[in-house]
Design brief:
The chain is built from 5 helices and 2 strands. By secondary structure, the chain is mainly alpha-helical. It starts with a helix and ends with a helix.
Length: 112
């Protein structure tokens, strides 16, 4: 868990959340920028470790209202403002879909 925390701290760059706002921050990262407005390159994604890839991928889902089922997902991302129990129902834009596909392919290849 400590290793994951360091991976997240090194990766995530979220802006402040307004008081009383339970919505997750936009999926923006120090090393990648905001992943909802451009496709990350394979070269950029390859530099990330398994924990970082997991964090980026699931940050996209969290920002769009996915309700996490796993303990890891619920611990990392609050389900307080979730709306979608099915990943297929989460409203993603084309960039987010492409980034998730890329990340999943790297995770699968590495056995993450």
């Amino acid at each position: 868990m400590k290793r994951m925390l360091f991976a997240v701290l090194a990766l995530v760059m979220a802006g402040p959340v307004a008081a009383g706002d339970d919505s997750p921050p936009e999926p923006c990262f120090e090393t990648l920028g905001c992943v909802d407005d451009h496709e990350i390159s394979e070269r950029e994604a390859e530099k990330l470790g398994c924990d970082q890839l997991w964090t980026v991928r699931n940050s996209i889902y969290a920002a769009r209202g996915y309700c996490f089922k796993t303990a890891r997902g619920r611990e990392a991302f609050s389900n307080a403002s979730c709306h979608y129990d099915d990943e297929a129902q989460v409203p993603l834009n084309d960039y987010e879909r492409a980034n998730i596909r890329l990340i999943r392919s790297i995770e699968k290849r590495r056995g993450c």
